[in-house]
Each structure stands twice: as C-alpha cells, then as structure tokens.
Design brief:
Largest sheet: 5 strands, antiparallel
Low-confidence stretches: 15-22, 152-184, 402-422, 568-580
Number of strands: 25
Keywords: Calcium, Membrane, Metal-binding, Transmembrane, Transmembrane helix
Number of helices: 15
Family: Belongs to the MCTP family.
Mean pLDDT: 76
Shape: globular
GO biological process, one term: regulation of neurotransmitter secretion
Distance between the termini: 53 Å
Radius of gyration: 30 Å
Structural class: alpha+beta
Helix content: 25-40%
GO molecular function: calcium ion binding
Strand order of the largest sheet: 17-21-18-25-24
Strand content: 25-35%
Protein name: Multiple C2 and transmembrane domain containing 1
Length: about 700
Amino acid sequence: FFQLYLDWITDCTNAEPTPRPPSPAMYQLDVVLKKGNNLAIRDRTGTSDPYVKFKIAGKEVFRSKTIHKNLNPVWDERASLHVETLRDPLYVKVFDYDFGLQDDFMGSAYLHLESLEHQRTLDVTLDLKDPQYPEHNLGSLELAVTLSPKDGDFRDATMLLRRNWKRTSKYQSMRLSDVHRKAQLWRGIVSISLIEGRGLQPMDANGLSDPYVKFRMGHQKYKSKTIPKTLGPQWREQFDFHLYEEQGGHVDITVWDKDAGKKDDFMGRCTIDLSLLSKERTYKLHLPLEQGEGVLVLLVTLTASAAVSISDLSINMLDDPNERHQIMQRYSLWRSFYNLKDVGVVQVKVIRAEGLLAADVTGKSDPFCVVELSNDRLQTHTVYKNLNPEWNKVFTFASSWGSKVARGADSVGYCQTDACHVPLPQIQNGERKAYALKSKELTGPTKGVIFLEIDVIFNAVKAGLRTLIPIEQKYIEEEPRVSKQLLLHNFNRVRRCIMFLINTGCYINSCFEWDSPQRSICAFVLFVIVVWNFELYMIPLALLLPLAWNYILIASGKDTRQDVVSNPVASRYPSDSERKGFMNKLYAIQDVCISVQNALDEVASYGERIKNTFNWTVPFLSWLAIVALGLATTIIYFIPLRYIVLAWGVNKFTKKLRDPYTIDNNELLDFLSRVPSDVQVVQYRELKLDPSPSPNKRKKNNPG
C-alpha cells in the first residue's frame, strides 16, 4: 500500500498541469444609457434635473448630460469604457443638478461585470437605492451593455519580439515599428470646422437669438463662441476630437440660445455618424436641426493617426540604432517643410518611484503613473500596496509642440518638471533623472521622487512655425467655479502688471520734470537724435536690445529674473461652509463673476508672458523672438514701408476671397500663448531633491 501511495504521488508530480485559458489583457464595456423611470423628487417644483455618473475602481469614467425638470428622462447616450479587470463593478450614481449649489444625491446601483456574457448586448434595469435608506424606492435606470474582450495584439507582439530579439537589425527595426503601430491608444483625429448656421429659430422677444453650439463625442466636449442677435451666425471655429474606435463613432451637436440670468434655450440638435465618412477626406455637411429650425454648415475631416503608444522597456524604438536614425532623418532640417504638423517625437520612460506618501489607512498606497502631453493621457498599471513601485514603461507621443508633460502617481502626488508651452527642448535626451513630486495643486512639494528618462526629437523650424498657430484646446479641465481667493489673486497679478506700466510712466515723466538733471539731459539728447534720425527698423531693433541685454546678464551668471512668488492661495477653493455662503450671495451673478475672474486671469497671463519672453524664461521662444525681430529689422530696413503696408492690405482684403472658410487668428497672441505665465512657472518649476538618502539606502545603512 505504501508503494502504491508513492507511485501515485510521483504521477501527480510529473503530470502536466491543466492549461488555463488565457485571460484577455483588457475588456471594452459599451454602455448605452437609455432612460430613467420614476426618479426621486429633489426640487421644490416636484421635479428634478437628473444626470448620471459612471465609476470604476473609484474613478469617474463617464458623466451624462443633464435633463431638466424630468423624472422620466431619456438620455440615449453611449459610452465605451476600457476595463482592466472584471472584479471591479460599474458603480452608477444619479444626481440632481442645482445651479450654484451642491448637487443632490438621487440614488445609486452596482452592475457586476463578472456576471455579463461576452460579445452579447444585454438590456439591464438597475434599481436605484440610497445606502443610508435602503428601503426607499428611488426609481430605476435602463441600460444596454456589451462586454467584449480586447485580446492584446500588443502583448502578442511583445512576446514575439522577445523571442526573436537576436535577429538582424533590419528585421528588428521592422518589428519595433509594427509593435508601436499596434499599440496605438487612439486611432485618428476628427477635425470639425463650424462655419455657419442658416435660418435658425428665433428664441428672443426681438425675433432673434444669441446662438452657440456644443459638441460632444464621449468624454470630449467643446463649446463655440456666442454670436449675439442673429439667425444666421458666422462662427468660423475649428475643433479637434480624438477618435478611439476604428469603426468610428458619433458626434452629438446641440444648438443653444444664450440667455443672461436664466437657463439657456434649446434650439435643436444633430448628429454626425463618423462610420459613414472615409479618412483623409474633407466633407462639407449641411445638417438640419432636429427639434428645431435651420441648418448647420460644417467641414469634417477624418485623419488617421499614429501619435500615441505605450509599451514595456524591452520595446524601445529609440534604443534601436536603425530606428533612431530613421527618426532623426525624418525630423532633420532638410525635411523642415514636409508635413508641417509632424513636429517631433517625445518618449518618456517611467522607471520607478521611491518614498511615496502613504494614502491608505494601512500605511501603503496603490500608485500608478500618468503621462500627459496636451490632450494625450497615458497611464501605467497600478502597483498595489507599495510605496516604492516599479513600472518600467515607455510612453511615445507625436509632439504637436507647445504642450506640457505631466506625471503623477495616484492621489499620492504629481510631478511636473517643465513649464507649459515648449518646455521640451530643455530636457537632456537619454538622461535618467529623479524628479521630486509636487502636490496636486502643483504649488508645493510632497513626499517621494519619480525616476524618468525622456527623449525629445523635433524639427526646430516646424516647432517655430507651430507657435504661430492656435494652441490645441485642452478639453480635460475642471469646470470653472467662483472663488473669492482666486479672484483676489488674479486681481493682484493684474495690479502688478499695471503698476509696472505706471512706474515706467513715472520714470519717463521724471525725465520731463528734471528731477535728475543728468538723467534729463541724457534723455533729451537721446530723444533729439532718435527723432531726427528715426527709421522704422529701429522699433524691432529697440525690442531686440532688452532681449540681448538680459541674455548677456544670464550668460554671465547675473540672472535678473525675479523669483516668482508662490501662489498665496492656500486652497484654490474655500471650505464647504464658506463656499455655500458665498454662493448664496452671488447666485444671481455667478456667470458675471466667472467671466470677470477669467478676464483678469487672461490679462495678467498675457502681461506676464510678454515679460517672460524678454526674461528668457523659455530660451527657445526667446531665441525665436530674436530671429523674428531680426528678420523684421532686416525686411523693414531694405523694403520701403509703403510696399510692406500695401502687401499687408492686399493680403488682408483678399484672404476671405482666396479661402472663404479660413479661420482668423492672431499670430502674436498665439505665440505668446506658448510662453508660461508666472503661475505656470511656479507650477512647472523643478524642485530640488532632498539631500537625505532614499528610504532604500537608509534601510541598508541602518539594518537594526
């Protein structure tokens, strides 16, 4: 019996384990939010203004539009969500929107993803409950959900690359390109030019309207400017959306009439089905408005893209000499005027982090890292219960220039090493460096460091030309809110700029007043000489002088740039009790306060950007200003002014004739938008590392 038992143990040990089916690397959850039934009453009028939020693993992944004054709302909205694991349920919450106040909770429900059948659309009814009062009936939501496994071509390609790593460099380079091409996170760009509206519905008492347009595709939202008092508005605006699905998607368009002091009036809607449009072609669409009157005229272009990818450290295109040489050739000066939109490539290696802040009650954290470049946002996997995580991921972006690189690690902290708008040339290619983490507001340090290695390859000519066109609008931003502290801070920034102008005027006036005879005599002689010999080229030449003078001071080690004072606002927004009282007082003029707040920020930002251009805050832009001013000096010196003005006038008058759908922009303001303001300089300044050793070294030195 003992021998039989030993034989059985031996057979079990030598037997091959039963192979388990491979689990998908990621799932795609397609959800159609249909409607709600018998929702809870939260307003005094006996109705509610409901909207729905979807959350997975504590993170908000979708928010629906708000249906006003309806307990049986019909949304009919679609959302495509990427899910890493089925263990985390879909958490659905419903809120009542209250203008200027805290939104009221209307119920929640869980959808357990493990119970869903793959590749099949299921109609689901979720009963809404309040965890504090589970016996209350808060109505229900009707959904249609489809769960689809997303088997990773990228993972398969990764393993295939590792098995064939020792092949010749030619095939290796081809394999690297294939892997990055298959690892794209968004498939293309949808460019929409809003041209005009025709025959819109009058909504005001004067027989006219103040129309504006809202665009929405998934999480991406845009809003056009408002054209007052017209039924045939001319917008001439352009919006770009990222296309994440190969089969296309839908762009929902709604038209609204702006009303001051009350809710805006709905004027109609229309939809663009992108699956009916082919790529690399521009369509002129005349879309009639449903539930309203009139037509919208749009230009729609779908462009295929290979702009973003994420991979492991073993798959790194810049480490391959042939691949790197091809990229360097693509962005060489000889190809400066070929495909002007392709400015360069940014590759970020996220290695690891050390000494992160413990965010959980257990003394640990579940950190992940996010890398942002304008509207591109890539994220690593989560390392659970670890304050010293290792990610070893490579992020690859196609740089459109003038964007920022942001790094974060869960709610533990965020690291921003470069100022917004053209910080990338300051990076030392291939240098593995530790960056100190900043707080979420980017105004002060927090615990921990992150190790990154960044490579930036770009064409300087394309980058310079790129600064003269409008900067890409960022659509992932917080909704503006009224803040007394922020309003005061923006006012102080404007006051500093105005005081600089006043002090300059006082200095010039002191020359007229002869407060200092020596200075007044020099000013008088200089004035006579300049006026007697004035030529127009002296204007850009005079602007070149402070640039050259500050550069000489900086190069000699005498940095005259003032250290920007940190944001004095301890918290960007006040506490809940203070905020509610302030909101109640300004309920009727909230829109006006937000407009004034944003206007102050805009004025202060442009004043600070002009100063920072001459202060060499961003050396690349200061060099670009020197080149532009030098060219302007040379052109104006050799060409008579009348010819320059004539050419400018002819170009200005014939611009619309040559291209009826051109979108106006101001090149000078577009250039200044790339220069960081003082607030951005503070937020994106690199922190100095703590000279004390890291936690790992401390443990080794103190084993006891």
